Amino acid sequence: MSFGAVQVEERGGAVGVEEEARGMPVEVSWEMLDKSRFFLLGAALFSGVSAALYPAVVLKTHLQVAPPPQAAASAAVAAILRRDGPRGFYRGFGASLAGTVPARALYMAALEATKSAVGSAALRLGVAEPAASAAASAAGGVSAAVAAQVVWTPVDVVSQRLMVQAPGGRYRGGADAFRKILLADGVRGLYRGFGVSVLTYAPSSAAWWASYATAQRLLWRAVGPEHHDSRGAAVAVQGASAAAAGGAAALVTMPLDTVKTRLQVMDAGARAPSLAAAARALVVEGGWAACYRGLGPRWASMSLSAAAMVTTYEFLKRLSAKEGSL
Asked: Helices 174-190 and 93-124: crossing angle, nearest 10°?
């Protein structure tokens, strides 16, 4: 993490001197970004990444809501293909994509603004840079996850209903599902699972960004400063750090994600059980292993998603840097 703005203001040194000294290349901070370019390019880039990874999300959702006995992932893939063909892996994608732009915008803004504010404050208080970087990344992850869930929870509810409904089901598309859920359950129906989503993603995001920052630091030290200007080395380090952090986060948050998904795909008008009751029912149904249904696709999805998203994100920040800031 770079707090170059603080370094320049307080010490008058060139941005990046301390970054190089501690074995890290210069990072683009919030203050260095052209915000208009950042959000416009980000919407386009992350829409493409979401489209590439969406089939794994569909498969994970089918596995999580399937009744016992648990089918293998390959059998679930075959069932989706038999029922809907390849388009079955993109059920609900329109609704999901409609939420991608505002959710990603909220996520990126909250992440970068919080990282910058917390990191700068920590350095001013005399906290060592490695600890300040980890703390700032964790705080940024929490604020970003909470902000994004304001948009993502309704999008999840709508898109997941579309993912698992049978052909000719009650919803004719994202707008129709949104309208029917709103009429049946009100705004509360669109935010079913919001609490457990925050419980799942806030600590997960905090751990993810802190782990990512730490892994990056270790890998850059191993790679050496002579490769700091290499785009290939940057992609490799960022991708490997992100994949490791994403896989660990998937394992830790899988039980809560399974419960959340079950709550969100319940029919409109159905009385939603409490989080504790839903968790107990899941364990009674299939034991503790039921909490990890869909772990394989989610692990793969989160690792690949993390690697793709972060390398895209870091590339986006460099594309969006103000002239002369690097």
From this structure: 50
